[in-house]
Amino acid sequence: GMHCNSCKVLIEDVCIDFVGVESCNVDVALGTANISHIETTDIAALIKEIKQLDSNYQVEIGSGCECRSRT
Questions:
Q1: Which residue, 52, 65, 71, is CA-closest to 25?
Q2: Do residues 41 and 20 lie in contact, with contact meaning Cβ atoms separated by under 8 Å?
Q3: For the packed helices 43-53 and 5-17, what is the interaxial angle rounded to 10 degrees?
Q4: Strand, coil or helix: what is 9?
Q5: Closest CA to 1 of 38, 24, 33, 48
């Protein structure tokens, strides 16, 4: 799961490079990443890329995306 600064950097790199993502704020202490994106963002593809980093990441969709680490 998300437990160190390396996890933070990996998630941010995936999100920042993803078409349609406007911002990504990772909080390692809480084990969360809040991702803001435009409406036309391919959320399924974004989730797939995040889960390729670690299959224990859970992604919840609301007004943006939230990635949580399962530990």
A1: 65
A2: yes
A3: 150
A4: helix
A5: 33
Q: Are 25 and 53 in contact (CB under 8 A)?
A: no
Segment holding 27, helix H or strand E: strand 21-27
Spell out, as residue ranges, where the chain has pLDDT lower than 70: 62-71
Computed over every residue of the chain, the mean pLDDT equals: 85
Over residues 15-31, the pLDDT tens digits come to: 999 999 999 999 988 88
pLDDT at 71: 42
Gyration radius (Cα) of the chain, Å: 11
**3-class state of residue 50 by DSSP:** helix
